[in-house]
Amino acid sequence: MISINGLTVEFGGFRLFENITYNINPKDRLGLAGKNGAGKSTMLKIIAGVQLPSSGSVNIPKGYRIGYLPQHMNHENTRTVFEEAELAYAELKQMQAELEEMNNELSQRTDYESEEYMDFLSELTDKTERLSYMGADNYKAQIETTLKGLGFERSDFNRNTGEFSGGWRMRIELAKILLSRPDIFLLDEPTNHLDIESIQWLEDFLKDYNGAVVVISHDKAFLDHVTNRTIEIVLGKIYDYKANYSKYLVLRQERFEQQMNAYKNQQKMIEDTEKFIERFRYKATKSVQVQSRIKQLDKIERIEVDEFDTSSLHIKFPPAPHSGVISVKGKNVTKAFGDHVVLENVDFEVARGEKIAFVGRNGEGKTTMARMIMHELDHKGEIVLGHGVKIGYFAQNQADKLNPEDTVFDTVDKVAVGEIRTKIRDILGAFMFSGEDIDKKVSVLSGGEKTRLAMVRLLLEPVNLLVLDEPTNHLDIRSKEILKQAIKEFDGTAIVVSHDREFLDGLVSKVYEFRDKKMKEHLGGIYEFLNERKLENLKELEQRQKTPAPKKDSGIVSQNAHEEPAVKSKISYEEQREINKKRNKAEKAVKESELKIEQLENLIMELEEQMNCSSNDKVMELAKKHEQANWDLGLEMEKWEAAQQELEKYNK
Q1: Using one digit for the tens of pLDDT, what is the confidence trace for 138-154?
Q2: CA–CA distance from 301 to each of 270, 278, 285, 614, 620 (Å)?
Q3: pLDDT digits (tens, 9 = 90+) for 526-542
Q4: What one-character DSSP code corresponds to residue 206?
């Protein structure tokens, strides 16, 4: 058990926590809740030992192991994915060496009746059990299972970690923490870079885990599935609920209403007492009663009502301009990067007013299709926009297209028209821009802040087709709810690429699943789709189980079993030359792509150096070149990945 005692944290005169005390039990599934800035991440850092409190203590049992995943971290790029994940077993390997030494010592000891011998045996037993618990016998299989559960393919295992984006490298760090099997997980936004299937796998892992879990997340569905206890941090205090997130919201509202009733009753009593004092203050016959009431007021512990975010900010997209019955239609759409086919002969149709989700594993073509609808990528086949369709597009790199010299307020003010201009500050506040934040220049904002600002800007543009690629990244729960409500009430068409089930639930009525180079249409909401996919997976599993396994050592060999090796040998011989040609071609493509990637990365570094020491006019020009280079780098990385996958086919 971890005990937090009298925890107080101050920053420059501002008190974040004050005298907080609570325990984390061995099997707790605890979610930390509270508005942004309440101190959730700081709380995790203090428990993890990364940050010290101003006063108070965190008592952790001796030998207790903590697995901490922060939101941001530096990554090394000197190992392969598998080698990096294997670092999780450094303690295991050290323990194996210690156990070997202890067994050697045990064989030489003769003090069987001594207390020291019994203590030594106890320690040896504990370490042996710990080693077994950590999976010493099958750790490589555990690495493979965990990496695949988090979305990696086996072909990724021998790739250098530097070849992956920040989101994928965060998955590698998460894999290391899961594999280390600590006594407690401290996870800060673990689902930010995961797709739906990976999130579900992580949910199942954490629910069945034998240790404790403390998690911060803006994914309400994830919290509901994983947690059974919620600690809310508000105004430097905490409230502890034995409930998951959805139940906590109900209990919190009940608490707020109770506080308000108690506050109103106390205020009425104070007001009546003050009136009595004022009325009889100068009457000698009432002086004893007056003094008694004054003392009574002094002794009252004033009830404070917690700071609840009760503002019902309602944002609506501008009315959608009129358009044709069909918003967008695709026929025989095929897209390949080099020899790697992402989508093949795909047909689809989106009608005016539909709200549709694009879902599927990363790399199956969701973002590629969104970019093709925007005519940002060439392709085979037809993608046709309907009559009068005007698209509002939110891409994952949309933040890079903001003017770095504009302030936050100016960025929104330039697109706001009509009555909405009077609510700009409220809208910015809903997306976590408040106080001095709105006067900051875009150039000094973090990546997450730029993403939120780009979303606010899109909310105010008059369009009739929204194409949103992962719009909920970097949004808190309240901001997501505001955006979700705005899209639900939007009278145009919306296509949403997302892994956030809670966000999609009740929003979309059709799901396009990207799988096996196709777009498969599923009518209904996101949870209907997920239930359907589970059934499909079970059918596939059942089908595989019906296939009889070959019998060993029976002495009976079928005719087909005799024939198959000969056929394979014949095919291999006839096609070997063609396979070699294709392998050489793939190797050449990989090397050419790696060279281009290196050149583009060097160009980006040069441009960043120039931007740091250039005038404002020059910076704008360099920023455009920088944006283009980043875009080209993304395309080249996709080409490299396609070429690498092609090469791996021939190296198996």
Answers
A1: 788 889 999 988 888 88
A2: 11, 21, 29, 59, 58
A3: 989 988 877 565 555 45
A4: H
